[in-house]
Amino acid sequence: MSAAGTERTGLSGVLIARRVPEAVAARAQREFGAILADHDMDADEALAVVAEKGLAALVTGPKVRITAAHAAKLPPSLKVIANTSVGYDHMDAAACKAAGVIVTNTPDVLTDCTADLAFMLLLNACRRGHEYEAIMRAGWRKGFGMPDNLGVRPSGKTLGIVGMGRIGQAMAQRARGFGMTILYHNRRRLSAELEQGAEYVADLHAMLPRCQILSLHLPGGEAGTLMTRETFGLLPRGAVFVNTARGSLVDEDALIEALKSGQLFAAGLDVFRKEPDFDTRLAELPNVFLTPHVASATVETRDAMGYKALDNVAAVLAGRPAPDPV
User: Fold this and answer.
1) Of 219, 199, 228, 222, the residue nearest 211 (C-alpha)
2) In CATH, what number is assigned to the domain containing residue 174?
3) 246 counts as catalytic
4) In the β-sheet with 102-104, what is the strand arrangement from edge to edge?
5) Residue of 8, 130, 246, 302 marked catalytic
6) Does Oxidoreductase appear among the keywords (predicted)?
7) Number of structural domains, the chain?
8) Are residues 139 and 238 in the same domain?
9) Is 31 part of the annotated catalytic residue set?
10) Which among 65, 176, 273, 293 is annotated as catalytic?
11) d(CA 60, CA 66)
């Protein structure tokens, strides 16, 4: 009954299939009388509730991994799936849309917080933040001389940005404050107004040898595994690597080899190929600064993400176009 082209019925009812901040939950109940999950549901659990209750909207998180098989039998009441994230590579959005369900995401609201965290990772990787803190938490008690515990100065370095969308541009803005030279690789060149002096390099392989620091800001996993032994090897020896985009972009075996060999001086990572069960070999390396996929984890941004998802739900249920269709 939910095959492509089938008309969908049902006008109301919302399931929030993940835990959300209090302010978002309050709005969801106030405006929609929403059903609120007390845990992060998976796709089977969430769709079963939608079907049982005849709900029109599903607000999802990354655990709701809707496949093409799910999309082929979506409940006929369902009209919109609202992702509380910019990325939606955890679901088959094309199959859902083909089945007549609108899919939305939350662009714009994560930009500044993600760029802030990416730059925090950059600074901590360059300045050995993990090692310095470990010394202090162990009690210090031993002095260090001039040759000891030396980081690299981020100011004035050449930063390569892969993916010059909103977040990449915000990262470049922060880098300008540190006097960095900015190179970028993107599917298309930006206007001079958006470039603000950054240099476009059409060929990634030509850009990498010039990057003393490399930061990934691609919007999803469509690029496949971008950073491999080959591409890490193209960076100048002693480069710094930062990733707040997607763990799937990186061959982690190659990353670990590069960190151990000195090909990379250090790395700052917020995302991993497998989450939360990430490769703990990374945690054993002193020259890696790690965070648990928390780039958007501020009160302001998480509230804004939830509100934007609800804005999309409200529009669709009122018969208006979704503000943020994917």
Assistant:
1) 199
2) 3.40.50.720
3) yes
4) 35-36, 14-16, 57-60, 80-83, 102-104
5) 246
6) yes
7) 2
8) yes
9) no
10) 293
11) 10
With respect to residue 323, please indicate whether it lies within any of the assigned structural domains.
Answer: no
Q: Each residue of 236-253: pLDDT tens digit? A: 999 999 999 999 999 999
90 catalytic, yes or no?
Answer: no
- Find the Cα–Cα–Cα–Cα dihedral 85, 91, 95, 100, rounded to 10°: -40
Residue 55: both structure tokens together? 């709900």
Say if residue 311's pLDDT is above 50. Answer: yes
Same domain, 104 and 124: no
- Say if residues 301 and 110 touch (Cβ distance below 8 Å): yes
Averaged pLDDT, 193-203:
98
The model's pLDDT over 213-229, given as tens digits with 9 standing for 90+, comes to 999 999 765 679 999 99
3-state secondary structure of 195: helix
pLDDT in tens, 63-91: 899 999 999 999 999 999 999 998 888 89
Query: ∠ CA 232-238-240 to the nearest 5 degrees?
Result: 70
Question: Exposed, middle or buried, 69 (CB in 10 Å: 0-12/13-18/19+)?
Answer: exposed
- 197 and 284 in one domain? yes
Which one is catalytic: 189, 275, 300, 320? 275
pTM for the structure as a whole: 0.91
Residue 59: domain span: 14-108+299-317
